[in-house]
Every structure is written in C-alpha cells, then in structure tokens.
Amino acid sequence: MISKKVSNIKPSLTLEITAKAKKMKASGISVIGFGAGEPDFNTPEYIINAAKHALDIGFTKYTPASGMQELKVAICEKFKNDNGLIYEPSDIVVSSGAKSSLYHAICALVDDGDEVILPSPYWLTYPELVSLAGGVTVFVETKPENGYKITAEEFENAITAKTKCFILNSPNNPTGAVYSEEEIKSLAKVAEKHGIYVVSDEIYEKLVYGGAKHFSIAACSEYMKEHTVIVNGMSKTYSMTGWRIGYVAAPNEIAKAISSMQSHTTSNACSIAQYASVEALQSDESAAFVSKMQQVFDERRKYMMQRLSDIDGLKFAEPQGAFYIFVDVSGVFGKTYEGQLIGGSLAFADAALKKGVAVVPGAAFGNDNCIRLSYATSMDDIKEGLNRIAEFVKELK
Questions:
Q1: DSSP-assigned letters across all residues of 332-344
Q2: Contact 168, 199 (CB under 8 A)
Q3: I need a labelling partner for 359 at 20 to 30 A (CA). Which of 157, 185, 214, 327 fits?
Q4: 16 burial via Cβ count (<10 Å: 0-12, 13-18, 19+)
Q5: CA dist., res. 71 & res. 12, Å (int)
Q6: What pLDDT was estimated at residue 19?
C-alpha cells in the first residue's frame, strides 16, 4: 500500500504532451518544442575544465553533508557582492539541485496542517513539496493586469492563524514576472507584521531584462533576513542544470536543521560538481558568459513578444525575467481544430501538436487560460515554431 503522502502527489500534466511529441519525433515528424526549462547553452569550458581537474586530483570522495567549505565561502561572497547580504558558511547548505534545497527548506519550516501561501501561477513542484511536508497550500490567484504578481493586500488577505510560510519566486516561472524593490518591500512588511516565514526562490536572479533588477526580500531588514530562506543554484545562471547543485542561505538554526535532514536523505551533493561550482562563482570569465547569455535571451524575448502581439486571440504580460512567456490563449476558446474543441490549455496544447508545435499547458501552473512558451531554444526554432502557432490559430474555426 502506497503512503497517503506519496499517493496524493499529482503526476505532471505535461507528461502526456511530452510523450506525444517524442513519439511524433521518433516517427520522423517535425516538432518544434517550447517546453525547455533549461538554458540551451553548454556549460562554459572553464567550468568543465575545473570538473576535469577535480577528477585528476582525486576529488571524488564524500564532502560534508552540507557542502564543501570552499564552495560555501564562495556562495557567501556571491550573496555579499550580488545581494548585499552577509552570511557565514554555517548559514549555507549545498544540495543536489535547487529542487532538493526547496524540499528540505519547506520540510524544515512546515508542520502538519500549516498553511503555505503560494501566488498563482506557480512552478508546479511547489504545492507537491508542501504536500509532502504535510502542509496545506493556499493559492492566491494573481492578475495579468498586475503582471501576475501578488500584491501586499492580496497577501495579507490570505493570511490565517494557520499561515506559516510564503513562497516567493522572482524572477518567476512560468510568467517571467520580476518584483520591483518597492513591491518586495511591501510584501516584506506584511510578512513581518504577521510573523510569516518566506521561502524565496531566486534561481533566475541573473536573467532579467528591460531595466528590471532582482532584489532579495532578505535584504529588506534584519528581521526579514532572519525569517527568509533563500533558494538558489548553479543551473540557470551558469547553464549547469545537469550538474545538480543548489543551495540555501538561511538563519543558522534553520540551516542546521536543513543540514541535519539532508545528512539522512541525500547526504552531500556531487563532489565534482561542487568543485566546478567554486570556479563558476569565482572565475573572472563568468560575468562575460552570463552577460552574453542574458543578451541572447533578451533578443529572443523581444522577438517572441513582437510576433505574438501580431496573432489575433493571444495576449500576454511582458516578461522581465527567466526565459518564459506566459501566453493567454483564452481568446480562442470555443473554437475547434480538425473537429477538436479548444476549451482549455490542455486541449490547446494537444491540438497544437497536430501542427507540429509543443507548448506547456498553463493548467500545470494553476492557470488553464494560458500556455507557457520557453525561449531557451534557438532563434531558428523560435521563428518556425511561432510560424506554426500563427498558422494553427488562423486555422481555428
């Protein structure tokens, strides 16, 4: 008999679309995919060379469960330089990917029955992690006219006597929303007023565009720093998704609890990937790599917005970060494609596959009116994929 906690975990709504797209490709059918959740750049050579050096010198043994000291020191320097936050190495826990960091952080904060406020649309893993920890997710639907960002008033209205935690993701997946410093500070005031802890997922912090700037809620005040767990990692900034290195910065008591839990779950993250991560954080070459990647993503972002603006029935809030555009397709609901009724994001995604384009249905992120399009793919594929989407929408009856 499967445990209730595990049996209640929902399978990904995107699996069916992904499986169909793979089957079509295997059959020789051209399919353009907009589902990528990782940069399409290879990990930079200087980081790869650091990993090779780790192998050459035999750095292949266990490290401390919470991460190697040199990496934790480098992470502290990153927080000081990028976010104006001072942490000690003992406040840092390195994990096998940011998803692992999130899970351990939520488990460290949430007891059975505790409520966790989550703005919607949201990354689909958050509520499942809350459920595994025994918590209850309270969804707060955000408005497209506000860029899909929760307001301080909406946040406060969702708080009850059972509220323990608030999950903040900026830059956001799936919407690309970036909260301004003023917006972050207004949310911090509410959290401080009610004694709410914040789990701040900042994995896309370096990928911001159009003058937007990332600001960490932990930098609002000493109180917020002591009530915030920041989750970040190497995957998006340095195109190191497969290396599986995430980390948390937290008040020391919480960091110790996360470290203790991790010592019994995953133990230390890969030693070789940790060694390479030190190079990524400290190398003089990293700034140029990140800047170039950001520039390429921004060019794609602008192109996609221009093309999508010309397609009748589709609309979107301008994304300022990450590498996604959350497109409202409800304007074509009620129409049909080859006899198939388009009544929601899943039906839209399923029908669009017939046109050779794979998109992620917004139902997976809590908003069935939208689809998520990633621009972490080549410009050639973006152009062809948008051509197919435009033709698809035009052929709807």
A1: GTT-EETTEE--S
A2: yes
A3: 214
A4: middle
A5: 33
A6: 74
Task: Please name the amino acid found at residue 54.
Answer: A
Contacts from 2-8 at CB under 8 Å and sequence distance 24+? Answer: 5/131, 5/132, 5/134, 6/132, 8/131
Asked if residue 345 lies in contact with residue 336, where contact means CB atoms within 8 angstroms, the answer is no
Q: Write the burial class of residue 287 (CB in 10 Å: 0-12 exposed, 13-18 middle, 19+ buried).
A: exposed
Query: Do 95 and 101 contact (CB within 8 A), yes or no?
Result: yes
In angstroms, the CA 139 to CA 200 distance is 16
C-alpha triplet 261, 258, 230: angle, nearest 5°: 150
Residues of the chain above pLDDT 90, percent: 91
Q: What is the per-residue pLDDT for 25?
A: 83
Helix (H) or strand (E) run with residue 381 in it = helix 379-395
305: buried, middle or exposed (CB in 10 Å: 19+, 13-18, 0-12)? middle
Q: How far apart are CA 226 and CA 250, in angstroms?
A: 7
Q: Which pLDDT band, with edges at 50, 70 and 90, does 368 fall under?
A: very high
Calpha distance 321→173 (Å, rounded): 9
Which of 132, 70, 138, 78 has its CA nearest to residue 105? 132
